[in-house]
Write a structure and sequence with these properties.
Blueprint lengths: L25 H17 L3 E3 L9 E6 L2 E12 L4 E8 L2 E11 L1 E7 L5 E7 H14 L10 H13 L23
Antiparallel strand pairs: 1-2, 2-3, 3-6, 4-5, 6-7
Length: about 180
Protein backbone atom coordinates (compact mmCIF):
# COMPACT_ATOMS: atom_id res chain seq x y z
CA UNK A 1 0.00 0.00 0.00
CA UNK A 2 1.27 3.50 -0.71
CA UNK A 3 2.67 5.62 2.07
CA UNK A 4 0.86 8.95 2.27
CA UNK A 5 2.27 12.37 3.20
CA UNK A 6 1.43 13.38 6.77
CA UNK A 7 -0.33 16.73 7.11
CA UNK A 8 1.45 19.20 9.39
CA UNK A 9 0.29 21.59 12.10
CA UNK A 10 -1.48 24.50 10.42
CA UNK A 11 -3.31 22.37 7.85
CA UNK A 12 -7.07 23.05 8.27
CA UNK A 13 -7.94 19.34 7.94
CA UNK A 14 -6.33 18.80 11.35
CA UNK A 15 -8.83 21.21 12.94
CA UNK A 16 -11.95 19.80 11.26
CA UNK A 17 -14.17 17.16 12.85
CA UNK A 18 -14.04 13.99 10.76
CA UNK A 19 -17.21 12.45 9.35
CA UNK A 20 -18.71 9.18 10.59
CA UNK A 21 -17.93 6.22 8.34
CA UNK A 22 -21.03 4.60 6.87
CA UNK A 23 -19.55 2.39 4.14
CA UNK A 24 -17.49 -0.55 5.34
CA UNK A 25 -16.07 -1.42 1.95
CA UNK A 26 -12.84 -2.01 0.04
CA UNK A 27 -12.08 1.75 0.03
CA UNK A 28 -12.19 1.79 3.83
CA UNK A 29 -9.90 -1.24 4.03
CA UNK A 30 -7.46 0.49 1.66
CA UNK A 31 -7.53 3.58 3.89
CA UNK A 32 -6.72 1.41 6.95
CA UNK A 33 -3.83 -0.20 5.04
CA UNK A 34 -2.51 3.21 3.91
CA UNK A 35 -2.75 4.56 7.46
CA UNK A 36 -0.93 1.51 8.84
CA UNK A 37 1.86 1.68 6.26
CA UNK A 38 2.29 5.42 6.76
CA UNK A 39 2.32 5.08 10.57
CA UNK A 40 4.99 2.38 10.40
CA UNK A 41 7.06 4.35 7.88
CA UNK A 42 6.93 7.44 10.13
CA UNK A 43 7.65 5.45 13.31
CA UNK A 44 4.43 6.48 15.05
CA UNK A 45 2.34 4.77 17.72
CA UNK A 46 -0.87 5.83 15.97
CA UNK A 47 -2.22 7.75 13.00
CA UNK A 48 -5.66 9.21 12.30
CA UNK A 49 -7.21 9.60 8.86
CA UNK A 50 -7.22 13.45 8.98
CA UNK A 51 -3.42 13.32 9.33
CA UNK A 52 -3.26 12.06 5.75
CA UNK A 53 -5.98 14.41 4.55
CA UNK A 54 -8.99 12.09 4.87
CA UNK A 55 -11.92 13.42 6.89
CA UNK A 56 -13.13 10.01 8.08
CA UNK A 57 -13.42 8.78 11.69
CA UNK A 58 -10.71 6.11 11.46
CA UNK A 59 -7.40 5.61 13.23
CA UNK A 60 -4.73 2.94 13.49
CA UNK A 61 -2.40 2.15 16.39
CA UNK A 62 0.65 0.01 17.12
CA UNK A 63 2.07 0.32 20.62
CA UNK A 64 2.62 -1.64 23.82
CA UNK A 65 2.42 -4.87 21.82
CA UNK A 66 -1.07 -4.09 20.49
CA UNK A 67 -1.94 -3.08 16.96
CA UNK A 68 -5.16 -2.50 15.10
CA UNK A 69 -7.62 0.11 13.97
CA UNK A 70 -10.90 1.62 15.06
CA UNK A 71 -13.65 3.07 12.91
CA UNK A 72 -16.09 5.57 14.49
CA UNK A 73 -14.44 5.18 17.91
CA UNK A 74 -15.60 6.41 21.28
CA UNK A 75 -13.67 5.94 24.51
CA UNK A 76 -14.30 6.28 28.21
CA UNK A 77 -11.99 6.37 31.18
CA UNK A 78 -11.64 3.33 33.39
CA UNK A 79 -11.15 4.80 36.85
CA UNK A 80 -10.12 8.30 37.76
CA UNK A 81 -6.34 7.96 37.58
CA UNK A 82 -4.43 10.26 35.23
CA UNK A 83 -1.00 9.95 33.71
CA UNK A 84 1.32 12.81 32.80
CA UNK A 85 4.01 11.98 30.31
CA UNK A 86 5.73 12.82 27.06
CA UNK A 87 3.55 13.04 24.00
CA UNK A 88 4.35 13.82 20.40
CA UNK A 89 2.53 13.85 17.09
CA UNK A 90 3.50 12.99 13.53
CA UNK A 91 1.78 16.25 12.49
CA UNK A 92 4.10 18.20 14.81
CA UNK A 93 7.36 16.44 13.88
CA UNK A 94 10.35 16.40 16.18
CA UNK A 95 8.59 18.10 19.09
CA UNK A 96 6.89 16.82 22.22
CA UNK A 97 5.74 17.91 25.65
CA UNK A 98 4.28 16.36 28.78
CA UNK A 99 0.52 15.98 28.47
CA UNK A 100 -2.11 14.81 30.97
CA UNK A 101 -4.30 11.89 29.85
CA UNK A 102 -6.40 9.21 31.52
CA UNK A 103 -4.30 6.23 32.60
CA UNK A 104 -6.79 3.55 31.54
CA UNK A 105 -9.47 3.64 28.85
CA UNK A 106 -11.82 1.38 26.99
CA UNK A 107 -12.59 2.25 23.37
CA UNK A 108 -15.41 0.90 21.26
CA UNK A 109 -15.90 1.13 17.54
CA UNK A 110 -15.89 -1.07 14.47
CA UNK A 111 -13.32 -2.73 12.28
CA UNK A 112 -13.07 -2.13 8.55
CA UNK A 113 -15.62 -4.92 7.90
CA UNK A 114 -18.23 -3.36 10.20
CA UNK A 115 -17.69 -5.79 13.08
CA UNK A 116 -17.77 -4.36 16.62
CA UNK A 117 -14.41 -3.92 18.36
CA UNK A 118 -13.53 -3.16 21.99
CA UNK A 119 -9.99 -2.17 22.98
CA UNK A 120 -8.91 -1.76 26.59
CA UNK A 121 -5.61 -0.06 27.24
CA UNK A 122 -3.44 1.63 29.79
CA UNK A 123 -0.31 3.74 29.68
CA UNK A 124 0.88 4.29 26.07
CA UNK A 125 -2.04 2.48 24.42
CA UNK A 126 -4.52 4.56 26.46
CA UNK A 127 -2.62 7.70 25.48
CA UNK A 128 -2.67 6.72 21.79
CA UNK A 129 -6.41 6.01 21.83
CA UNK A 130 -7.14 9.40 23.39
CA UNK A 131 -4.68 11.23 21.10
CA UNK A 132 -6.00 9.68 17.88
CA UNK A 133 -9.65 10.14 18.86
CA UNK A 134 -8.85 13.80 19.50
CA UNK A 135 -7.57 14.05 15.91
CA UNK A 136 -10.97 12.85 14.70
CA UNK A 137 -12.56 15.74 16.60
CA UNK A 138 -10.15 18.36 15.22
CA UNK A 139 -8.24 18.57 18.52
CA UNK A 140 -4.44 18.48 18.72
CA UNK A 141 -2.58 17.39 21.81
CA UNK A 142 -1.13 20.90 22.24
CA UNK A 143 -4.72 21.97 23.04
CA UNK A 144 -4.57 19.67 26.09
CA UNK A 145 -1.38 21.18 27.54
CA UNK A 146 -1.43 23.46 30.57
CA UNK A 147 -1.28 27.15 29.69
CA UNK A 148 2.44 27.64 30.33
CA UNK A 149 3.49 24.52 28.44
CA UNK A 150 1.14 25.36 25.57
CA UNK A 151 2.71 28.81 25.23
CA UNK A 152 6.17 27.21 25.09
CA UNK A 153 4.91 24.59 22.60
CA UNK A 154 3.47 27.21 20.26
CA UNK A 155 6.75 29.14 20.36
CA UNK A 156 8.72 25.98 19.51
CA UNK A 157 6.29 25.09 16.70
CA UNK A 158 6.63 28.58 15.15
CA UNK A 159 10.44 28.20 15.32
CA UNK A 160 10.47 24.71 13.78
CA UNK A 161 12.10 24.44 10.35
CA UNK A 162 9.00 22.77 8.89
CA UNK A 163 6.49 25.37 10.17
CA UNK A 164 5.04 27.59 7.49
CA UNK A 165 6.65 25.61 4.70
CA UNK A 166 4.39 25.19 1.71
CA UNK A 167 3.10 21.65 1.41
CA UNK A 168 5.14 19.60 -1.02
CA UNK A 169 3.58 18.81 -4.33
CA UNK A 170 3.03 15.07 -4.34
CA UNK A 171 2.21 13.36 -7.58
CA UNK A 172 0.07 10.43 -6.53
CA UNK A 173 -3.22 9.00 -7.59
CA UNK A 174 -5.99 10.29 -5.38
CA UNK A 175 -6.99 8.05 -2.51
CA UNK A 176 -10.67 7.13 -3.00
CA UNK A 177 -11.52 8.84 0.28
CA UNK A 178 -9.24 11.87 -0.26
CA UNK A 179 -11.32 13.52 -2.91
CA UNK A 180 -8.37 14.69 -4.97
CA UNK A 181 -4.59 14.46 -4.91
CA UNK A 182 -2.51 17.36 -3.71
Amino acid sequence: MPIQPVRLFGDPVLRTRATEVTDFDAELRKLVADLTDTMHDEGGAGLAAPQIGVGARVFVYDCDGFSGHLVNPAWEAVGEEDQVGPEGCLSIPGLGWDCRRKLRVVARGWDSHGEPVTVEGSDLLARAIQHETDHLDGVLFVDRLDAETRKQAMREIREAAWFGEPEPVVKVSPHPLFGKAR
